[in-house]
Amino acid sequence: MAQQQVQPSRAEEYKLKDTSPQLGERWPHTRGSGWMGLVYGGDKLTSTYDLVEQMYYLYVRVVKAKNLPTNAVTGSCDPYVEVKLGNYHGTTKHFDKRVNPEWNQVFAFSKERIQSTILEVYVKDREMVARDDYVGRVVFDLNEVPTRVPPDSPLAPQWYRLEDHRGEGKVRGEIMLAVWIGTQADEAFPDAWHSDAASVQGEGVFNIRSKVYVSPKLWYLRVNVIEAQDVQPNDKSRLPEVFVKAQVGNQVLKTKVCPTKTVNPMWNEDLVFVAAEPFEEHLVLTTEDRLSQTKDELLGRIVLPLTLFEKRLDHRPVHSRWFNMERFGFGVLEGELRKELKFSSRIHLRVCLEGAYHVMDESTMYISDTRPTARQLWKQPVGVLEVGILSAQGLAPMKKTDGRGTTDAYCVAKYGQKWVRTRTIIDNFNPKWNEQYTWEVYDPCTVITLGVFDNCHVGGNEKPGGGGAARDMRIGKVRIRLSTLEMDRIYTHAYPLVVLQPSGVKKLGELHLAVDSLRYQAMSIVASRLGRAEPPLRKEAVEYMLDVDSHMWSMRRSKANFFRITSLLSGTIGMFRWLDDVRRWKNPITTLLVHVLFLILICYPELILPTMFLYMFLIGLWSYRFRPRHPPHMDAKLSWAEAIHPDELDEEFDTFPTTKSHDIVRMRYDRLRSVAGRIQTVAGDLATQGERLQSLLSWRDPRATSLFVVFCLVAAVMLYVTPFQMVALLAGLYMLRHPRFRSKLPSVPNNFFKRLPSRIDSML
Question: CA nearest 26: which of 2, 59, 54, 4?
């Protein structure tokens, strides 16, 4: 009991907190006050970046220079530009022997770190041995810098005559510059050099930038292996036991061994793979002869590009085709005989790319997209989701640099096929991103996932071979179900970033958001493709966002799912199963007796059904006062992360297969975890169904509860004015109709019920 009692201070830190950020772009009425005199006198709200706090920057665009003087000694000029503002200075790349260089580079200085009223732009000549020479400079007074308000056009750069670095007169050469004050909504912001990341050099600069990624387009590749002909074994004295092995990338599937020993085997088996556009992998098919349980012999092989196959968008059958296989084995000869042997065996296939299905790359419990692969089958979007990633507070040190704890945090958000990554805030336990992103919503019963990570690659600390020396550390994750949000309402909350570690559950900070209203293979493909981007979205981040290890055995998760089940009525499942058996006429005698009982009850209608619906309507109306005011968040208590035993935690973070040394213990341990993982999934599904039933009147999903409450009201009114005997008779006979009069498609109420939310969104 002592472990389950949480101190009020600790329980409080795991709760969702309301915040009151200053959202929207706000500009002064007059721009003449300049940078240093900037005040929030008047408000001008724009349509972009209105869900984040505005962060003001001084932007300097260095475009190019012309007619630069050459060095009197070397006779050449290796120019570069240094932009200096107080203690901060950034430099462009340098060019060798060029008097008319072009840089086209942008520098951004945060207002919060400005320590000077003078901006200095120096043009220098790089020297290999001596100190770099000054070519000239341009000086700006920050009080005279104009302000650019989106959606104004970009500020046009101008030519400035260079002056002596001591300010004693003009010198030869001109530089084209544009200087303005703006916010993070400026299009120059993502690719600009930032003063708050001045310590990052080299390749690390590319690893800290914000980026938008798009998941690759995934297809299901269905390979129907029908039959083969003239499959000759290498040993002519026996008939082969043939099976087909198919491979796409690192996915390998096999058919069963043909039950008949023959040179013309038949299988008619379906093998399903996951493929991504552009199709880089090939379909590799081999026919093999099963010599023994441990030995197979290759007989034939064929390699087919995926672009060869038809893309199917409906249920129409795909035409089958015969393919000639290349012969393998002792009978293969060179020259003219090889051409003949290539056609000695062939295989009959029916292959297509399925475009009418959605390829699952994330858990169905918190899926973010249900659209089919083929764009032609997409419906129109039902709305737009806008998310402002504001800041995080109180992050814990994730690594040590120069003997002190540091955190370089960035945030990743995933919804549908679109991934976003904020810029990395260097060495800050209270980072402020204030970046806003937009997604089209095609189904409100979906979940957006946001994760915060510590960037371990800002210093370019990677191995020479390309392998990273460190992995980006997870700080925490937040999931938000869109159906729990109200339309046209802005939510501003601080979400606790709770993560489970081998040492126990920890709160590693708070994430501030503003919201306006064959899976493993798919995940591997998505992680591989996103890892090629610049900056790469690394595999550990993709795996954490997609919950790749959610199916593994965990005593903690099993306990949490079990107690979710016990919170429901124990007899509910049994009652529904019995009613389902009666409806399906599993026992005709029982079903007939139920018919007789039902007809008897028709004679005493009273006010049972109207009262029941009216009662549920009143409950729903009363519950509206106590409806959840905040979106769900990660619940450490619901997840049983607070009272977990250290040994159970060690088991959860153990590798699979286990690292235990004893062979017998390892075998039993792995078997237990595999079986328990399935039990865990079933337990979670049962709890989800019960919680969906509870959510009908809880206003967790406002739209669904509104529809149900209105339905209850309409039903109550209709049943008050309609004879009960007629309604009950028609409803009862419809429910008890024979299975031959039922449709195989799910009913509308069943489809509606499966789209209701559950508390799985709040579990770790």
Answer: 54
The rounded distance, in Å, linking the Cα atoms of 697 and 619 is 7
What's the distance, CA 732 to chain centroid?
45
Dist. CA 80–CA 91, nearest whole Å: 7
Please give the Cα distance from 445 to 638 (Å, whole number): 22
Q: Is 204 in contact with 458 (CB distance < 8 Å)?
A: yes
Q: How far is CA 418 from CA 169, 208, 222, 389, 555, in A?
A: 54, 19, 26, 15, 34
Whole-angstrom Cα distance, residue 544 to residue 682?
22
8 A C-beta contact, residue 305 and residue 279: yes
Residues 389, 394, 400, CA angle at the centre, nearest 5°? 105
Percent helix, percent strand, percent coil in the chain, to nearest 5: 25, 30, 40
Which residue type occupies 539?
K
Over the stretch 106-142, which tens digit does the pLDDT of each residue have? Answer: 998 888 878 788 999 999 888 877 777 888 899 999 8
- Look up residue 659 and give its two tokens: 């690292």
| CA-wise closest residue to 447 among 385, 521, 374, 538 | 385
Residues 461-520 have pLDDT tens digits of 444 334 445 788 888 888 888 888 877 777 777 777 766 665 555 555 666 656 554 777
Spell out the long-range contacts of 23-27 with Cβ–Cβ below 8 A and sequence spacing 24 or more: 23/50, 23/51, 23/52, 23/53, 23/388, 23/490, 23/492, 23/514, 24/49, 24/50, 24/51, 24/54, 25/49, 25/50, 25/54, 25/149, 25/150, 25/183, 25/185, 26/54, 27/147, 27/149
Handedness of CA 673, 679, 683, 689 (dihedral sign): positive
CA distance 563 to 324: 58
Q: How far apart are CA 27 and CA 49, in angstroms?
A: 13
Q: How sure is the predictor about 608, in pLDDT bands with cuts at 50, 70 and 90?
A: low
Residues sharing a CB contact under 8 Å with residue 273, sequence separation 6 or more, in sequence order: 220, 221, 223, 246, 248, 251, 253, 283, 518, 521
pLDDT, tens digit, 9 for 90 and up, residues 361-420: 888 888 899 899 999 999 998 888 888 888 888 888 888 887 888 889 999 999 999 999
Show the tokens assigned to 509.
Answer: 């900070």
Asked whether 517 and 482 are in contact (CB, 8 A), the reply is: yes
- Tell me what pLDDT residue 414 has: 93
Lowest model confidence (mean pLDDT) among 30-34, 487-491, 558-562, 749-753 = 30-34
pLDDT tens for residues 236-248? 888 989 999 999 9
